[in-house]
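To close the chapter, one final illustration. This time we ask the reader to focus less on the individual chains and more on the assembly as a whole: which components sit near each other, and how the overall shape emerges from the parts.
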Amino acid sequence: MELKIENAPKLERGLIDVRLTETPIEIEHEGLLKPSERHGGEAIFIGRVRSQNHGRKVTALSYDSFAPLCETVFREMAHEAQDRWGRDSHVLVLHRVGDLKIGDVAVLIAVSCKHRDEAFQASRYIIENLKERAPIWKKEHYEDGASEWLQGHALCQHRKESEANHHTHAHVGV
Amino acid sequence: MEVQVRLFGAFRNLGPQEVKVSLETPTVTTAEMKTLLASHFRSLPKSSFDAAALVEKSALANESAVLEDHALVSAGSKLALLPPVSGG
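The assembled structure is written out below.
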């Protein structure tokens, strides 16, 4: 659903930084993209490893990923967010892989836009789509020494033709 | 000729990081490739992890895109078998 404005000059795309990282994400050291002077709103979403899931005590997490495709998917999501909420928005998507402790930052998303509403919507769009589309897998480790790969969202093979808003089938997930 | 398939997520329960599947024809569709993978997993010693059942819910991809069911896979290709995802 793009809003087309005839004859409007096309803004240059804002900055995009998407990465998977094996080293802990330290918010203060991540060098968030410096917002442009036109940006009045910046939304930062941080996802952390929590100690409970479905009533089981989680002691640690491991993330596996298919890196080349994952970074392509991150970039596609960033472009979609820019096309929808401001082409000149800056988008940072950072996801940790490897072994994580409780409280560690698993994902960091930062979007700066003209106004706060666009920034909130774009960052929400990116985290929701990341959960459905990014080739990343989570393995939980439990108190009793057991560990389990979580069930997730089956990857959709026809997104480019159908786009998220035009789905005629349900995605079964957990 | 073989297709090399890298394994991710729960498929790592199987141990090896990849499997090699032999093709009897120069190309197969992605859907046929998934059937070949499921039969390969069924031929492995039984374990509590049902890899063949997970193939049905999984996608095949190359490094730049998830492949559609009718896309053709040629011998010599390198693919990735992606179970349902759980990032974030």
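The first helix of chain B runs from residue 30 to 42. The helical segments of chain B are 30-42, 51-56. With these observations in hand, you are ready for the problems at the end of the chapter.
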